[in-house]
Amino acid sequence: MPIRTILAATLALALAAPAAAQNRVISTPNAPVAIGPYSQAIMAGNTLYLAGQIAIDPVTNQVRSGTIEEETKLVLDNLKAVLEAAGMTMANIVSTTVFMADLNEFPRMNAVYATYFPQNPPARATVQVARLPRDVKVEIAAIAVR
Question: CA 62 from chain center: how many Å?
């Protein structure tokens, strides 16, 4: 391998390192602890990437199964807690991805979702999946910008 290629690769890595060092893990006891090797959220510059939340009670860290409305409310409250730990609000969310076990429940999930975004709702994708962690009805991931 030519020395020029090695030097270019080394320089690229060196320039990328400060950007990676600026990434900050956001964590709060007011949202469920991660059930795997991931963070509740990562702040990269002014952008917050929130891991998908499911209907887990942050106090007991147990699934709180219920109606789609009850699960959606808990999921959004969990996202809100992580946002607050980063000094943000629901208004900072620019995009969400909603994963549902049954799209027939979409209108009921959507009614609860709408109460959390009364003005200028974020962009959103909603998909039905074969199965969600711990057999919950809904999972929501989000991206927020300061």
Answer: 19
Six-digit token pair at 20?
A: 């990676």
**Which tokens sit at 99?**
């994963």
Cα dist from 88 to 10, 26, 37, 82, 119, whole Å: 36, 11, 24, 9, 16
> Could you tell me which of 49, 53, 60, 48 has the C-alpha nearest to residue 34?
53
| Domain of 30, in residue numbers | 22-145
For residue 141, is it within any domain? yes
Give the CATH number, domain containing residue 123. 3.30.1330.40
Asked whether residue 4 is domain-assigned, the answer is no
Total domain count, the chain = 1
∠ CA 115-91-97 to the nearest 5 degrees? 75
| Rounded Cα gap, residues 56 and 59, in angstroms | 9
pTM for this entry: 0.86
- The string of pLDDT tens digits covering residues 135-145 is 999 999 999 99
